[in-house]
Amino acid sequence: MTGKTKSEDGNHEAAKSAATAEQAARNPSGGTNAGHSETNDGRAEAFAKLEAENTDLKDRLLRALAEVENVRRRADRDLNDTRQYAVAKFAGDMLRVADNMGRAIASIPAEALKDEGAFKTLIDGIELTEKEMLRSLEKHGVKKLNPIGERFDPNFHEALFELPDPSVPNGTVTQVVEPGYVIGSRPLRPAKVGIARGGIQSQPAPRGEGEPKG
Fold it and tell me: Mutual orientation of helices 118-139 and 88-106 as an angle, nearest 10°?
């Protein structure tokens, strides 16, 4: 017999149905390989979008933190400047007192300094008062300048005259007529000085910028 029986046809249909069920179990969504590819592409695109958004948010956060730090530093600097330079006017008034004390001491004859009596005690008291005043000013950032031997600096010195002196470099401060003062790194009052002229052309080493010597 060459023909198939109904029993054989039934078995074939059952096997086909079983295979279809197995494939459905393996692929619950019922999609094809093309469908899987489209799903994966969609997920990859969504992930790339999220990653780009995350990078952008991280960059914004870092910029915001940097700006906050810059603002904090500027505020600290402004506060320090305010504290340091708030006494500038008062310190300027006190300089006249210090000048008068210095002139009083400088005007005392050398013979009088040898006296061991009450006058000598008075002189010592004036000198101690002057030193204490300078220490108090320095405590608040005000420092006296004594620039003899330094190169002339127009930021901290005021030249009153020039003196021929070939023994020192041209432009060297050789005489201080009136001492100067700085507050922090800024000039409070320039020192009035005389400078050398006609000496060797090489200049003495300048002070560090913004850091005048006392």
Answer: 160
